[in-house]
Amino acid sequence: MLPGFVIPPGANGHPVGTVWDWTGARPADPVLVVRTLDPALAPLLPGLTGLVAQTGSPLSHLAVLAREFGLPAVVGATDAVRRFPIGSRLAVDGTTGDVRLGDAP
Fold first, then answer.
1. Given the residues 26, 61, 67, 83, the one annotated as active site
2. Which one, of 87, 89, 81, lies nearest residue 4 by Cα?
3. 56 phi, psi to nearest 5 deg
4. Could you say which of 36, 46, 50, 76 would form a disulfide bridge with 31 (CB–CB 3.0 to 4.6 Å)?
């Protein structure tokens, strides 16, 4: 488990999806895992299962948009890009800020 800062209000439940870095084919249930919250990523938000960023502010433009889309989003997930390889399954808890590998929350 990797804790981070939740972007309130958190989405319900513990959505599970497939790690995606916005390159390559988009999976059916993408969890976008990035180094930082870049506003240029905003067009990718529709259809995401979750958002995880190593750095960024819960008050950033992308964080606000994620909140409006009802996405579970976590920032401050140290070394997330390395720890969560593309294609792996990831559970994102938008209430507690926990991010876990695997299908079970």
1. 61
2. 81
3. 135, 170
4. 50
What mean pLDDT is predicted for residues 77-90?
95
Verify whether residue 61 is a known catalytic residue: yes
**In 3-state terms, what secondary structure has residue 59?**
coil
With DSSP H G I counted as helix, E B as strand and the rest as coil, what are the percentages for the chain, rounded to 5?
Answer: 15, 30, 50
Q: Is 44 exposed, middle or buried (0-12, 13-18, 19+ CB in 10 A)?
A: middle
Task: Provide the CA 39 distance to its chain's centre, in angstroms.
Answer: 14
Residue 4's CB is within 10 A of a number of other CB atoms, namely 23
How far apart CA 44 and CA 98 sit, in angstroms, is 22
Task: Verify cis geometry, omega within 30 degrees of 0, for the bond prior to 9.
Answer: yes
Question: What is the pTM (predicted TM-score) of this model?
Answer: 0.88
Check residue 12 and give its pLDDT. 53
